[in-house]
Amino acid sequence: MKKNDTGLLSRRGFLQLGATTAIATHALAMAPAAPASQKTMAEVPFRKREPRLGLIGTGGRGTSLLKNLLGADAQIVGLCDVVAEKAKAAQVLVTKAGQKSPALYTEGPHDYQKMLQHEDIDFVVVATPWIWHAEMAVYAMEHGKDVAVEVPAVRTIADCWRIVDTSERTRRHCMMLENCCYGYNETLVLRMIHAGLFGDLLYGEGAYLHDLREELFSNAGEGLWRRTEHTLRNGNLYPTHGLGPVANYMGIQRGDMFAYMVSMSSPQRGLDVFRAKHVKAGDPRLSEKYVTGDMNTSLIKTAKGLTITVKHNVSSPRPYDRVNQIAGTEGMFEDYPPRLYLDGQNTDESWGTLDKWKQYEHPLWKKEGEVARKMGGHGGMDYIMLYRLLQCVRQGMAPDMDVYDAAAWSSVAELSVKSVSQGSAPMEFPDFTRGLWRSRPFSAICTMA
Questions:
Q1: What are phi and psi of 163, to 5 degrees?
Q2: Per-position DSSP letters for 164-225, written without gaps between them
Q3: Domain span at residue 337?
């Protein structure tokens, strides 16, 4: 906060400080009180160990994660899936990597509970349909396991509080596997921001703009469950890929917090049009009613007054785009394609590139980038994410992304649905940290040397 020449806050600064305090106080009032014995999990390190992993979900995403985990020498102890053939195929990958054959759990949708009751597993990775995330994460923590959950971590505000309260009560970590926070461009720009090259941050934008129509109507994989979400809710169903990196840039949960948001959706047309072209008469999918607007646009205001635009569209013909924009008083960056404009660095109004800023390449990419690119997985970001997660456990460090990030980023989904249903009314964010966001340090991913 800037002061005038006398050292006193200006009137504008005073009003801004008052508004920030009022927002933060109201958000804290919305937070359910934790039991006196229940302490925060912020900055709590992992118990230092070589983790023994159990993986729930060995479909397309689970198998991709498994390959990257094996590439990072993770010890795989158990595999669980409702489709036995998929679990067996994953088992072969583990043995081919030179490890002992992991136990399989394939006896129905609740067989994961049997796996999590075993003491030889102390860390769980969840890569299942969204509707199962909260139940599996809570069950894992209650049975002594740290847990990493695919995105979004949970679907409702109530489940956001469930994972926060369970993590604090059990003293087990629950984090979200938001791979986009570990992308090459995202981590490089993050270091430039922390070096001050963007000045004071002002606004950002993140998105998930991905033509998934063919996948949604597939008779396999995510087509078996993800399309159903479009019959249930109208809002931003999948906010974290675009939002996570911007939240890291801005230090959300660590000096600032999401205060409130408004959301609006376009009409729903895309899935109807695609279905009419590709689904044959007599198919039961013809009776489905889709309610999710093709384009959802949400605007978030932070406690410190910064703004974030978050978009979601998986129903329209278009190129893939996460936008990944961040702007400050000294310049801005925007991705797809990556381009940069810094005050004084450009002689005209044209964009520059990231090429001349490679000195800000993140240490994780400097050390593991070659391996990551060979492993694949969204350009290597999956490997970097999992390598870093294992590093934190092996060295007994706190996770880069914790249960409070998982809750805050995931909460956008339900808040957007509520805002859309009420004519784009403002929706306030709960304070999942119960006030600790004011004094928390930046995540280690931002500052590691």
A1: -70, -35
A2: HHHHHHHT--EEE--GGGG-HHHHHHHHHHHTTTT-SEEEEEEEEE---HHHHT-SSGGGGT
A3: 181-362+402-447
- The span from the CA of 119 to the CA of 136, in Å, is 16
Shared domain check, 222 and 127 = no
Q: Which residues of 355-373 are buried (b: 16+ CB within 10 A; e: fewer)?
A: eebeebebebbeebbeebe
Q: Same structural domain for residues 209 and 74?
A: no
Q: What number of other Cβ atoms are within 10 A of residue 349's Cβ?
A: 6
Residue 83 domain-assigned?
A: yes
Question: Per-residue pLDDT tens for 167-177?
Answer: 999 999 999 99
Are 149 and 268 members of one domain?
Answer: no
Q: Are 51 and 75 in contact (CB under 8 A)?
A: yes
Cα gap 99→94, rounded to integer Å: 6
pTM of the model: 0.93
Residue 61: band (very low, low, confident or very high) from pLDDT cuts 50, 70, 90: very high
Sign of the dihedral through C-alpha 109, 113, 119, 124: positive
How far the first Cα of the chain sits from its last, in Å, is: 28
Helix or strand or coil: residue 333? strand
Q: How many domains does the chain have?
A: 2
Distances (CA, A) of 259 to 28, 234, 414: 10, 21, 15
126 and 132 Cβ atoms separated by less than 8 Å: yes
